[in-house]
Write a structure and sequence with these properties.
Radius of gyration: 17 Å
Largest sheet: 6 strands, mixed
Shape: globular
CATH architecture: Alpha-Beta Complex
Number of domains: 1
Bound molecules: manganese (II) ion
Strand order of the largest sheet: 4-3-14-7-8-11
Structural class: alpha+beta
CATH superfamily: Fumarylacetoacetase-like, C-terminal domain
CATH topology: Fumarylacetoacetate hydrolase, domain 2
Order of helices and strands: EEEHEEEEEEHHEEHEEHEEEE
Number of strands: 17
Strand content: 25-35%
Distance between the termini: 41 Å
Helix content: 10-25%
Number of helices: 5
């Protein structure tokens, strides 16, 4: 069977110390998962049900420059723990959720904050603020078989060597098993799905020429240059 147009290229993320890659199916993101970030964005940090938005699979890029996107003058960095799934399902029990995890990475949820603020004010969707080209640089994926399932650890981001974001995974309002369980109530999860788990406080703008480095202790580090 042939296709009427060329098959789109698969999105393949590198796996640390491996010749094999991780194929991406969908990308989900958690909003406001650290109290200090919810407060800095003007929201109540109470434990409301998590909410989700999406990026496009091909927004995930590894080891590339970050091209400053058009139609924004206020692009912000958000460093996040990234979950990569090897299994999925519907209504997954939190007690079983970690069995679905292939591994973890560190990533940046780049956000056109000005477009997001306009969308919020108008009650419109966030897609243009979140799901633009190159908007999700990610590190190599580290298998859970190697590092286990992180519950705490420093998560940080620096611009040109200066610390901008610093938090700890233990500050996540919704923990990894709970995020998978909640997400699987709404969507059928499957192997290849990626979940970005929210950002600690300290988000702010980037500029062309900035070297943005970030990491999660015990997981991975990542550096991108804004061009
Ligand atoms: Mn985010």
């Amino acid at each position: 069977m042939t296709t009427v147009i060329p098959l789109p290229a698969p999105v393949l993320l590198p796996v640390v110390n491996s010749e094999q890659t991780f194929p991406v199916r969908r990308v989900y993101c958690v909003g406001r998962n650290y109290a200090a970030h919810a407060i800095e964005m003007g929201h109540d940090p109470d434990r409301e049900p998590p909410f989700f938005f999406q990026k496009n699979p091909d927004n995930l890029v590894h080891g590339a420059d970050f091209p400053y996107p058009p139609l924004s003058t206020d692009v912000h960095h958000e460093v996040e723990l990234v979950i990569a799934l090897k299994h999925g399902g519907d209504a997954i029990d939190a007690a079983d959720a970690l069995d679905c995890v292939y591994g973890y990475a560190v990533g940046i949820d780049f956000t056109r904050r000005d477009l997001q603020a306009q969308a919020k004010a108008a009650g419109k969707p966030w897609a243009a603020a979140k799901a633009f080209e190159h908007s999700a640089p990610v590190s190599e994926i580290v298998p859970a078989q190697v590092i286990g399932h992180p519950t705490d650890g420093n998560i940080w981001l620096k611009i040109n060597g200066e610390t901008k974001q610093q938090g700890d995974l233990n500050q996540m309002i919704w923990k990894i098993p709970e995020i998978i369980a909640e997400l699987s109530k709404l969507f059928t999860l499957a192997a290849g799905d990626i979940i970005m788990t929210g950002t600690p406080s300290g988000v702010g703008p980037v500029a062309r020429g900035d070297a943005v480095s970030c990491g999660i202790d015990g997981v991975a580090t990542l550096t991108v240059t804004v061009v």
